Task: structure prediction
Amino acid sequence: MFDVVTFGSATWDIFIRDKKFSLEKENNLFDKKGIRFPLGAKIDIDEIKFSSGGGGTNTAASFSYQGLKTAYCGMLGDDPAGEYILTELKRLKIDTSLIKKSSKKPTNHSIIISIPNKDRTILIYRGASGDLSSKDVDWQKVAKAKWIYIAPLSHRNPSLLEGIVNFAHKKKIKVALNPSNAQLSMPREKMTRILKKTDILFLNQEEASKLARVAHKQEKKIVDKITNYYPGIFVMTKGERGATVVSQASRYDFGIIKGKVVDRTGAGDSFASGFVSGMILKDDIEYAIQLAAANSTSCLSEWGAKNGLLKKNQSFKKIKIKKRDEKISQKSS
Ligand SMILES: Nc1ncnc2c1ncn2[C@@H]1O[C@H](COP(=O)(O)OP(=O)(O)OP(=O)(O)O)[C@@H](O)[C@H]1O
Ligand SMILES: [Mg+2]
Result:
């Protein structure tokens, strides 16, 4: 029996940090800022670190640290990075028996180039993770889960999401979903059909604005539009402005627990997996919010998406939650 099975990417992350990297003005870039390297040069770097990443394995790490029986289901490449990830997952006591190896593509890789105390640029190779299809999944084993957590899935296999959600629905397994951008662009009816079979939906404000088809700035309108038809718990994260959670009965608004930010990789994953852990452990939204906020602050205080995650029974600072009782039916009338 598993408390939770996670789906989503598994990547091998390579972190490169150097004080010498500097922000350069680049008028033709979106943010008008960039990191520039001279062509043909060899550049010595100060610091390099490695760890596993990707939404599927990051969230599995959180669940396992919270003492939940966790399995990760995904595809790795048949290569050293795939082996490193397997070793790390086993060290984290995550069941790896649902993992498959691709003969076609190398393991996903991310190269994270960061300027200390500034920001980072990530180069991503999307490889083996996107090859997972329904036929690779050991459904008999997945059927033993109480919860399924679905991190963003690759656009290369558009039917996988609906396959997982339908299976969970049939087997009465609860589902938490953090859809990918590609999934948010799905035909409206199909997306609505899928969402109605999930229990918790996580979106950042940008993604929520895309799903709702409401301008990014119109925060209240975005939340109202989604919660008018979404039957589960809707969670919209807003980066350093915190998040909003809406259930059938109540709405909760809260900010962040401030802490030092070493590396912001994994903010979304640690928040969502902290929240779901709280729901699995206590079935209490306020406790889930506390664990989510604390897990993300703790995650950002270390480099990498897994190194700073909270451990079971580790104490943490609490956040102030503004709770309002408001029935969905009243809101839409
Ligand atoms: N600087 C910060 N300090 C503390 N907590 C933070 C910070 N940034 C984000 N968080 C927490 O993490 C949550 C998720 O962050 P965000 O909204 O940026 O998600 P995301 O865009 O999905 O992130 P990701 O890029 O990891 O996918 C926020 O709601 C907030 O609670
Ligand atoms: Mg995210």
